[in-house]
Amino acid sequence: MSRFNSPGILLSALLAASLAACSNDSSSSRSDSKTPVSGKVADGYLAGAKVCLDLNANQTCDDGEPSTTSTSGGSFTIENATAEQIANAAVVVEIIVGETIDEDNPGTAIDRTYTLTAPPGYGFVSPLTTMVQNEVREKGVTPDEAKASIQTRLGTTVDLEDDYVAGSSDGGGNATEFERVHKVAQVTRAVMQQNIETVTQVLNGTEASFEDVLALIVNQVLAALETIGTAVDNSSGEFDADALVDSGAVDDAGVDPAIVEDDLAEREAERNASTVSIAGVLGGGGSLHFFESEEDGGQVSFAYGTVAPGENDNVTITDFRYNNGNGLWEEESGDGSNSEQNCILSGGTWNCVTDSDETIAISGDSVVVSRGGLSAAQETITGVAVNLSGKRIQTYANDEYFALALDPTAKFGTSATGYKLTFTRASDYYELYKENAASVSACWDGDANTEGPWAPTDIWCNNVFTRTGDGNSQTDGDAATSLAQLISASAAVNPDSPEDIKGTDIYSNDKSWMVEFVNGGRANFYPFSYSEGGAALGAKVSGSWVQKTVDGKAILVFTIPDLIAAQGDFDRYDRVQFFTVHESYVRRGYVAKAGASNDNEWVFNNAARDEIKAAFDNGLLTDLDVCSSGDAEEALISAFASAATACSASAFVSDDVAGKALTSDFGIFTFVDNDSGNYFGELGDDGQKYLDFSWSIDSSGSIVINTSTTKADGSTLYLRMNIAKIAQNARQVSVVTLGLEASSEAALDTASGDVSGEVWNIR
Hints:
Strands 15, 16, 21, 22, 23, 24, 25, 26, 27, 28, 29, 30 and 31 form a 13-stranded mixed sheet that branches. Strands 10, 11, 12, 13, 14, 17, 18, 19, 20 and 32 form a ten-stranded antiparallel sheet that branches. Helix 2 packs across helix 6 (210-223), helix 3 (143-154) crosses helix 13 (562-568) and helix 5 packs across helix 6.
């Protein structure tokens, strides 16, 4: 029995499909005058789908929202919308099961629902624009930033707003790439349909917000977008998106049933969070606690910090680190030796500070973070409070290592509160990085040249090196001493290598770009790489630059274009960068604009801190071993017993599994009480199934699960799973299993199946 599923639970009207709208830019003297908006919606072109403007941003078409029905070719026109609505509302398309036609399969109505969305102003809506809109909603990025990120993951420069159906058949120069993007969209649609069914089965009637469900589904697809692109590229013969998904080639894009309920619970909690005064929390004597881990050379260390009120409205931070030797959280002395500095422009000078120069203070109703006492370096902390009562602790872990080291079954108590913090810049912030190395030879982790081209000049380890553009690599690599050395009088014409372009290089995420600052304000970014055949330049992406004076300093400011930022994984807050001359050489820095914010930090009250510490177990980082010495195919129950004995199996007790879910590679076994449970996962060639089962512990201490399913011909298939426990901790259980199937319950006693050693996760 390699898999298990339930009778079809029909997908509720919760899920719909989204579309994009194309705005009429003509102005109107009245904001409520009606303006028609037209566009197309596609996986393949979708006819007979409901299209609306999502005025309340809940990703469904509600009564009273401007709407229409798409026609042949996926075309739609919404007649009853105002210009303001068109400019601000995303478009949603709802598939009408049994009526909507995907013209990739003409004459056949769609039988499984899915939802598409697109940002305001898009004239084409597809599974790919749905991912764009999801990034906008989830991360607060602009549509262009989101689009560039998805283009990068797909490895394409095709504009996701373009009609890929028309583009793949018009004979244009991008027809092949449009066809590829169309296939990716088809696979994305199929995965979304499968994920919707998975979520529906897991929820099993439990209410959930549609916007949370859609975000969960699309986020998982986004995480596996590169896998989807690779699967499309590796496919051959007549393309069938549904068959490709069923083949398992894109399983990474499927939602994990084990975390569906937790993810949705967290999203609901955040939507229902209440704004709170962080100054009030600290000023009232409360403390906030944050947890973090660090990996270095394969060794993981754990720490937490306590932010507490001090004297004169100051706030203190006390750090604690976990001691693996004695199992205690010990206060750190605070005498860290990190010499790295950030040099901040304030008062006409570059002020170099370290992390230890950071202070936090309560100022009226605000909490203000400052570095080096500099007003230019201030951030204001705001936040929302979330009641964590009854929620799984692991769900709120800030990083993957902490998540692994927490008991997955532990939950917060009734007094636990979490706070999601937002840090907002008070003013424009200009920063240079100074490694402050022990010597020049220690720059860049000791990998720097100590003389000649491309060699750092000092312990800043922050030089900008010139490209002369004369085609001779021997003249490149000098440390720039003026901004003028970086500026080109004219753009390079058909350059073949970085040596043909005047400017400088930038690096990020193991990628390199040649940047050409053309007189007049254009910045051209050329991706490049070296191989045995020499340097290869990619297609340029253009942006802009400007030279200005800030606080008495001459600065060349440029913005990393969306596509380059996505390729290099530049933090969206590091995308505005600059060059300036300091201590005789050009240095590179970044700009954070006033109002820029970062909101990904969870902190906790005292009760939640204590419960996190109680759930922490450093030993959970180490996976249990698989005992596979008795693995066998077509084996009888006697072979299972022998394998369990050889692996030194111990007896299960009810508390080992009751109220818990065990997650295997093929599905999830949820043990409800001492004799019932359910399974969701794969079942042979039938795909994913949901099955109720009964379970017991036999005289040898093994769990015996019994269930059945109805086959396509109407007959009943009886299933049994025998599970022996080899080892168990809070996170995992090592087991030996035997899966059996037969045409009658009695025949299971003499049936044969595969004996397999496995490690399953617990939650």
